[in-house]
Amino acid sequence: MQKQREATLREQRRRDGDTEAPLGRMSAIGDRYERRSRAFAAKIAATPTDRWTSPSPCEHWLARDVVAHIVEMHEIVLGRATDRNGSTSLAPSDFDPLTAFDGVRTRAAAVLADPTTPTELARAIDDELGIDLPQHGWDLAKATGQDPTIDPVDVAELWAAVSLFTPSQWSFMRTPGSFGPGIVVYGPEVAVPASAPLQDRLLGLLGRDPRWTPAGLGELD
């Protein structure tokens, strides 16, 4: 299925006339990753210690599990360059979100800055990690009472990307266990008015309720 998603995004690039030279494309991917990873790191840094065990919009995940997922997805993708592998799981009790994310973020940035990095790996970082950071940044912000606004540029880019998924691809990604036991990529689509802001419509398409809040917890002052 991941290959299907990558193929879909490649087709989008072809339709959009992406004929940029490899070095220029690498620079654009590096800039996009830096912007999205910086925003995610800022949300981690702004999270109070007592909010790491707050529930998140992702069913069965606490706030710290959202970061653990992002870290392990980095391990999986970067493993293609460093011979390291990873798997998704809940965060261990001694998990340090900021240190863990800073580590994989630094590695990813180094891979993107390396002119010998294969184009396909750079695209995997862009397509797989890049598409995860904004949406899970929203999850983390909602779980910890922060401003959940996603960069409008990222909202538009993600909307364009996921709008290309076919009904069969959505069905596969919304079916629990399609990627392995206990793994759910996206929940059922949440109905959002057509007149709602694009961010809300994107979140609904990704199986998230834009109005979600953790029970009994408010936003940070």
Task: Reconstruct the topology from this structure.
Elements: H1 2-15, H2 22-45, H3 63-82, H4 97-113, H5 119-144, H6 152-162, H7 167-174, H8 198-205
Helix pairs in contact: 2-4, 2-5, 3-4, 3-5
In short:
This protein has 8 helices and no strands. It has helices spanning 2-15, 22-45, 63-82, 97-113, 119-144, 152-162, 167-174, 198-205. The longest helix has 26 residues, at 119-144.
Query: How many distinct helices?
Result: 8
Specify the biggest β-sheet.
none
What overall form do the CA principal axes indicate? globular
SSE class: mainly alpha
Rg, rounded, reads 17 Å
Strand content: under 5%
* N/C terminus separation: 42 Å
Key descriptive features of the protein:
single chain, mainly alpha, 58% helix, 8 helices
Structural commentary:
By secondary structure, the chain is mostly helical. It contains eight helices and no strands. The longest helix has 26 residues.
